[in-house]
Amino acid sequence: MAGKVVFNSRAEIIGPPSLIPRPVGTTVSVSGFLEALPVRLQEWRRREKAIFAKTIALIQSYVLAVPSVRFRCANDNVVLISSSGSGNPKNSIAETFGRDLNGRPVQQISINSPISALLYFGELTKKQATDRQYVFFKKRPCDMPKV
Fold it and tell me: What contacts 24+ positions apart, CB below 8 Å, involve 140-146?
């Protein structure tokens, strides 16, 4: 059993929490987002693809930062990201990016205790490079300034 809490646009709880059948874990469902703000909604719709891609990249960063937690991200019942929570960074990379890592170097670097970096060297092609670098501070992804 899980508790369902419904909020209005001012972040106030509407009615008492109710019990619903759900599996173990945290589920967040968003609907009616920005309905009361038509200008913001129009801007959201104009930039929807870019915002969606940025959100997926952030979730991928969290999957890699905390490989021991199981993630499942779905949109309209289509699973976009799914991880097993095995605790192995190589498995997390393979599950996140859908690639077999045999023969491809993956380096995990720990600098002091709270800072770590994960470098994934993918295949280099003439059209694009698939190398990815992720830096984590206290198991949270952070963006490093370009040097």
Answer: 140/62, 140/65, 141/58, 141/61, 141/62, 141/64, 141/65
Q: How many domains does the chain have?
A: 1
Give the global pTM: 0.68
Alpha-carbon separation of residue 108 from 24, 91, 121 (angstroms): 31, 13, 11
pLDDT (tens digit, 9 = 90+) per residue, 64-105? Answer: 888 888 888 888 888 888 888 888 877 887 787 766 555 565
Residue 42 lies in a domain: yes
| Collapsed DSSP state (helix, strand, coil) of residue 4 | strand
Instruction: For residue 20, tell me if it sits in a domain.
Output: no
Q: Show the domain range for 48.
A: 35-142
